[in-house]
Specification:
heterodimer; B: 552 residues; alpha+beta; Sulfite Reductase Hemoprotein, domain 2
């Protein structure tokens, strides 16, 4: 499984790609998959992170999502932010072709 | 160009049906992801950062207008209205849904296209010179050999599970536009003292984390023996290539470890065995059958000079610049080769919208015998344009933002998709290329700087060919922050060289200034007529190192 978080990360969220179209999704508190990081359930601490990751298994079994993994987030002004450039790009689309897709819809996320 | 016979079409149709079934079974859960992943990769479907990516094979970079229109249609219907031409002369779509892939493959098959050999540990799509059939000093059209290799290698049972992927490139001219020395096998078409055409073979070239220049293992393989010789190389690789370590699995590592003499000895021994059986001897009639597909188009008898062209060059300085950088000499009087830049100032290298594809298809149909080429430098080429039509072609391209006069210049950069799209990348490539392009936007300044190739990769896998850029940029990740390492003096032509690392990496904020410093240093020390690469070869890395690290 991919490692995109770091040891000692305080807050983590769980992401995957939807099987049918590959779109990036996040696991919510209700164990549904949302395209918005703001809907993501955020786990604090290592144990809560592991528990969050375990909750992906049924969706993988049900062929709903593929390649689930945890990644580090921060909580700022009541919003969830990805810590790494990579996860920010997955969240908000490429930093190029800003006229299209998520990168147009979530215009404030990329600098 | 080559047209499918009934066997080709059946092969492709059967593959579409097979993969459609596999996709359906994956979606219903009959196949697990672990079972499905190798199958999707055999059909060009990757899972990238945001979505699936579909890589479509464009054999040796040759496309018909009809095929390009189909790519435009697929981009519009199943994707986001654009595609991305790659350094392997292929096209990638960044956003197809898995459930749509069977329909996309059906559409592709209807125009003799597919995604076979665009992924996996097989012999990949063969690449070649975009000037094939048009270059002045060409010994033989390299597409003939490329097509023969395509037919031999497709679904070859012995070579479907190689230790690692395998790339072959072919050049028919002494000046190499196909980067053959950085391929697993590079084939240079040559002529011997008796005037016979044969093949000089390089083996073990490659980029990635361990860049190597291919070594010559044969100076002349006769035409009839080419497949036997290639098969001999493949067998030695298949036998001894390392399967225990993915980073040491390419043939370049094998050649490096056993040495070129031992590689040569093994290949010759295998070659002798294969020849004994005679099964891979290429019959003359079969070569002639393939050759017939690549006969020259019906050129008109024209004077070499065109008064229409000469007048337009005088009247329109922007056109004159375009002719200077984007138009190359053709072997037939009155004709020229036109390079279409997919590097507009501030644009994404290699990206092309569906509307642009349709426009290019129309231009190719009207002005270049209905056919075009993809270059490994992520541009397109119209191989046979009448000189008197050049201005009309320029105007038609300009209307679609396709007439940037920068081929071979500093803004004609190669860049991999990088962290904006790629699941393997550590850093972004495209925004960097865009910033450099904007910094050097002034076309007069670009022409004054002259030939300069900047190649950028977003990770060590080197899809952006940074090792062989005159200036190479490698994106690295340092604790979640992007840094860029610069190499100088690389080249991918007949004088292939791996660039030298200049020093410590630059931050995103520093890198464009660093490129400017390199350019300024070059301008300051170049002699008359010296290109950047010539100056670098004369003076080495030190003057650049001094100016870069003095100012940063």
């Amino acid at each position: 499984m991919a490692q995109h978080t770091r040891k000692g990360a305080q807050f983590q969220a769980l992401t995957a790609n939807r099987l049918s179209d590959g779109i990036v999704v996040y696991l919510t508190r209700e164990d549904r998959w949302s395209e918005s990081l703001q809907d993501a359930d955020v786990a604090e601490g290592k144990e809560a992170g592991e528990a969050l990751l375990a909750r992906a298994a049924p969706s993988v079994e049900a062929n709903e999502v593929v390649e689930p993994y945890l990644f580090e987030v921060s909580l700022e002004d009541e919003s969830v932010r990805a810590v790494s450039v990579r996860e920010t790009i997955r969240q908000a689309g490429p930093t190029v072709r800003r006229d299209l897709g998520k990168q147009a819809e979530l215009a404030g996320v990329h600098r | 160009m080559y047209r499918y016979d009934e066997f080709d079409q059946q092969l492709v149709n059967e593959r579409v049906a097979q993969f459609s079934g596999q996709v359906a079974r994956r979606l219903t859960g009959e196949l697990t992801e672990d079972e499905f992943k190798p199958l999707r990769l055999m059909n060009g479907v990757y899972l990238q950062l945001h979505a699936y990516m579909l890589r479509i094979a464009i054999p040796y970079g040759t496309l018909s207008s009809k095929q390009l229109r189909m790519l435009a249609h697929i981009g519009r219907k199943y994707d986001r209205g654009y595609g991305h031409f790659t350094t392997r002369q292929n096209l990638q779509f960044n956003w197809p849904a898995l459930k749509d892939v069977p329909d996309i493959l059906k559409d592709l098959a209807s125009v003799e296209m597919h995604c076979i050999q665009t992924s996996g540990n097989c012999i990949r799509n063969v690449t070649s010179d975009q000037y094939a059939g048009a270059a002045k000093n060409e010994l033989e059209d390299p597409r003939i050999v490329s097509e023969i290799i395509r037919q031999w290698s497709t679904f070859h049972p012995e070579f479907s599970y190689l230790p690692r992927k395998f790339k072959i490139a072919v050049s028919g001219t002494p000046d190499d536009r196909a980067a053959i020395r950085v391929h697993d096998i590079g084939i240079q078409i040559v002529q011997n003292g008796q005037g016979e055409i044969g093949y000089e073979i390089y083996v073990g070239g490659g980029l990635g984390r361990t860049p190597m220049i291919g070594k010559k293992i044969s100076g002349f393989v006769p035409k009839a023996d080419l497949l036997a010789y290639l098969e001999a190389i493949m067998r030695v690789y298949n036998m001894y290539g390392r399967r225990d370590n993915i980073y040491k699995a390419r043939i370049k590592i094998l050649v490096h470890e056993i040495g070129v003499e031992e590689m040569q000895r093994q290949v010759e021994a295998e070659f002798a065995e294969i020849r004994k059986s005679g099964t891979l001897h290429l019959p003359e009639e079969e070569i002639a059958r393939i050759e017939a597909y690549f006969q020259p188009p019906a050129y008109e008898d024209l004077p070499d000079e065109s008064t229409e062209l000469n007048k337009a060059v005088v009247a329109d300085p922007a056109f004159a610049n375009w002719v200077k950088s984007n138009v190359a000499q053709h072997k037939v009087p009155g004709y020229a080769i036109v390079n279409i830049s997919l590097k507009p100032i501030g644009g994404v290298p290699g990206d092309c919208t569906s509307d642009q594809m349709d426009a290019i298809a129309d231009i190719a149909e009207k002005f270049s015998f209905d056919e075009l080429r993809v270059t490994h430098e992520q541009n397109l080429t119209l191989a046979h344009v009448r000189k008197k039509d050049l201005y009309a072609v320029y105007e038609a391209l300009k209307a679609h933002d396709l007439a940037t006069a920068n081929i071979g210049l500093i803004t004609d950069q190669i860049a991999c998709p990088g962290l904006d799209y790629c699941a393997l990348a550590n850093a972004r490539s495209i925004p960097l290329a865009q910033q450099i392009s904007e910094r050097f936007a002034d076309i007069e300044r670009q022409h004054e700087i002259g030939e300069l190739k900047i190649n950028t990769s977003g990770c060590i896998n080197a899809c952006g060919h940074h090792h062989v850029g005159h200036i190479g940029i490698l994106g690295v990740d340092k604790k979640g922050v992007e840094y860029y390492q610069v190499t100088l003096g690389g080249a991918a032509d007949e004088k292939t060289a791996i660039g030298d690392i200049v020093g410590r990496a630059f931050t995103e904020d520093e890198i464009v200034d660093a490129i400017e410093t390199i350019v300024t240093t070059y301008i300051g020390i170049r002699k008359d007529g010296e290109r950047f690469i010539d100056t670098y070869r004369r003076v080495g890395v030190d003057p650049f190192k001094e100016s870069l690290y003095e100012t940063h």
